[in-house]
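Honest question from a wet-lab person: if I give you the sequences of every part of a complex, can you actually get the arrangement of the whole thing, not just the pieces? Trying it with mine:
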Amino acid sequence: MEEIIISTLQRAMVAGTPLLLATTGEIICERSGILNLGVEGVMALGAVTAFIVTMTTGSPWLGVLAALAAGMVISIIHAFTSVTLQANQVVSGLALTMLGLGLAGMVGKPYVGKPLTIKMEDITIPILSDIPYIGKALFSQSPFFFMAVGLALVSWFFLQRTRLGIQIRSTGENPKATETQGVNVFLIRYMSVIIGGGFSALAGAHLSISYSKSWIEGMTAGRGWIAIALTIFALWNPGRAIWAAFLFGGIFVAQYLMQPLGISPNFLAMLPYIATLLILVLISLKDPRKLNAPAMLAAPYKRGER
Amino acid sequence: MIRLSYTDRYQITRLRTLVTNIFSLAAGLVVISIIFLIAGVNPLFAISEIFQGSFGSMYGFKETITKAIPLILIGAGLTLAFRAKFWNIGAEGQMLMGAIFSTWTGLTFGDALPGFAIIPLMFAAGFLGGALWGIIPAILKIRYAINEVISTLMLNYICAHILTMLIVGPWRGATRFGFPGTDNLPDAAILSVIPGSRIHYITLILALACAAILTLAIYKTRFGYEARVVGENPDAGKYAGINFFKTTLILMAVSGGLAGLAGVGEVAGIHHYLGYPASVSSGYGFTAIIVAWLAKLNPLYTVISGIFFAGILVGGDAIQISLGLPAATVEIVNGTLLIFLIMGDYFLHNKITVSFSRT
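Yes, you can. This is the full assembly:
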C-alpha cells in the first residue's frame, strides 16, 4: 500500500509539472490583459526543439534553453497581432496553435519514435527526501519539477510584490490609467506574452526530454488547453496554480490506477477533461464574482483612445 | 522622423475587403514559401503542386468539392456563433456527435425503412446530436460564466473518447473481424454520389442551402439582428430586452447542428461506417474556423472560402506524396494564412497615413 501511495504521488507530481509551467506562463500573460490560446502549439514546438537539440548536442540543458528561446520567439507573433494590431486574440491564439503544431510536426518528422538515451539526473534533496510517504514525491524529482515550483513561487512574488509585477497587473485591469502613470503598456504586454510563451515551451521540453524521452506528433495531448483552464481554476494566482496543477496531475495518474479495475481506458482518458469542466462549474457555483479575472482580459487597447 | 498615424475607417466597401483579403493571402503565401525554403523544398514547386493537386485536375477538383462540403456546413454555422462573439472551437466534437447519432439511426432503422425515409431521419439525428453537444457550452457560459473556448475544447476531447469507446466496445461490428469500427451502414442509409467522384451531392445541396438560409437569417430576421447585438453590444441588447440565454442557446444549436450535419455527410457519404475520430474528421472543425474568418463571417461567402481551404487540404495531401512532406504541413499553411488574415483586418479597419515631420 505504502508503495502505491508513494508512486502515485510521485507520478502525480511528474504529470503536474508541465501543467504548472504552462499555467504559470499563461497567468503572467493574462494578468497583462492578453489571452493567449497558443499554449498548445508553443508547447509542441518547445517539445520538439528541446528533443532535437538535446539529441544532437547531448546536453539536455541546451535543449531546455533552445526550447525557451523558440517559445519566446514564436510568441512574438501573438504579441504583435494582439498588442500592436489590436487583432482578435481568440483567433490569433488559435492561429499560433496551428502554426506551432504544424512547425513541430514538420521539424520533428525525422525524429518520431527515436528514443532519447541522454538522461537528466533527478535532484534528490538529502534528509527531506527521507520523510515517509511525501519525501520521495516532493524532494526527489526531475529538475523540471523544481524549476516549475520555483518559477511559480517566483512569479507569485514577482506579480504581487515587485514594481514591474504590479505594472503588469494594472495593465490588465486598466491600461489607460496605467499608461497615464508613465508605464509603457505595449512593452509590458509584449514582455508578458513572450515570457508566457517561454514557460509554455519549457512545459513542452519537460514532456519530450524528461517525461516520455521521445517525440511524437500530438504528444502534448491537450495539456496546453488544460493549462488555460487551470489559469481560471487558479484564479490568476501562480501560488494557487501549484496545487491546481498537481491536483490535475493526480487526475492524469488516476487513469492508469483505475485501469486494472476493468474500467474502459477511453472513459478514464476522458477524466481530465470532464474534471476541468466540473471544477469550473464548482468555482462558478461558489462565487463567480470571486473569479477576479483581469478586467481588460482579451480587450485590445488602442493608444490615445478616449 | 516618420510618423505613422491611423484613423478608424467607418465605411468598409466590399471591394476593399476583397482586395485586403487577397493581399493578406498573398503575403501569407510569401511567408509559407520561406518556411518551405528552410525545409529544403522549392516553394514555387510546392505551392503550384498544392493548387495543381486541388484545382488543376478533374480528379483533384472533385476531391476539393468533396472536402468543401463539411467545411461549408461547419464554417457557415461558425459565422453565426462568431457574430455573437461565442467562440465555438468545438465544431470538431459537434461534428463527431452528429456522426454518432446518425450512425445509430442508420444502423437501427436502415434495414426497415426505404432510403427516402432513412436519409432525412439520419440528417435530423445528426443535427440533433451536434445541436445537443453545442448547447452544453452555451448553458455553461450563460449559467455558469464558463469560458466557451475552454468548454468547447474539452467537449471535443470528451466526444472523441465517447466515439472511440463505442467503436471498440458495444458498437464494434461483427464484420470488422475484431478491428474497431461499426458494421457498414445498410444500403438505404448510404448517400449516393456523383458518378466517378466521392461528391455526396445531397449533403452538398444541403450545405449550399444552409449557407443561403443562414445569410438571410442573419441579415433579414429579428433573430439574426439579436445574435449580432449579443456579440457587438451586449449592454444595448439588455436594454432592448433581448433574451441572451435563449439567443445563445438557439445560435449554438444551429452552429452545432450544422457541424452535426457535416458528420452525417462524412459517415453516410464517404466512410459508410463509424471509425476512429481521426478518420471521421480530418480536423474540419478547426479548418472551418479559418473558413468562417476568411468569409468575414458572412455564411454565403463560406462557399468560396470553404472551397479554397478544401483545395489546400487536397493539395496538402498531394504534396505529402510528391514531396514527402509531413501531414503537419497543412497546419503550417492554415496557421500562417490565418495570421495574415487577421493582420489584414487591421488595415481594413484603420487608415494608415505616413507623414514626415521634423523633430
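Two things worth pointing out. DSSP finds 14 helices and two strands in chain B. Chain B has a mean pLDDT of 90.
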